[in-house]
Write a structure and sequence with these properties.
This protein is of the alpha+beta class and 91 residues long. The protein is 26% helix and 34% strand. The protein has a 5-stranded antiparallel sheet, covered by helices on one side.
Length: 91
């Protein structure tokens, strides 16, 4: 089952969706990212491997590769996602 991540912080208009896709490619996982109306970003990852998800979250919150990102992720909510992997930014 896919995982849904809701990113909180300064995440819209700061290159967040592209930034998230870069770390997904680093981890060889496909997914999507979308801006939500409440100011958060939703990332759907096509994996049920929680170890991979946790490493991905560590990557996007600490940015060890120094990818371009002008915002800040302060917290991430994780849930299972049973629907299609739809979103406006696919990777």
């Amino acid at each position: 089952m896919a995982k849904q991540l809701i990113l909180h912080g300064r995440v819209q208009g700061v290159f967040c969706r592209a930034y998230c896709s870069q770390y997904a490619r680093e981890r060889h996982v496909r997914g999507t990212a979308s801006n939500l109306s409440d100011g958060t970003v939703r990332v759907l990852l096509n994996t049920d491997d929680m170890e991979l998800v946790n490493r991905y979250i560590q990557d996007i919150t600490t940015n060890p590769k120094g990818f371009t990102f002008y915002g800040r992720i302060v917290s991430v909510d994780v849930a299972d996602h049973a629907g299609p992997l739809s979103g406006d930014y696919q990777f």
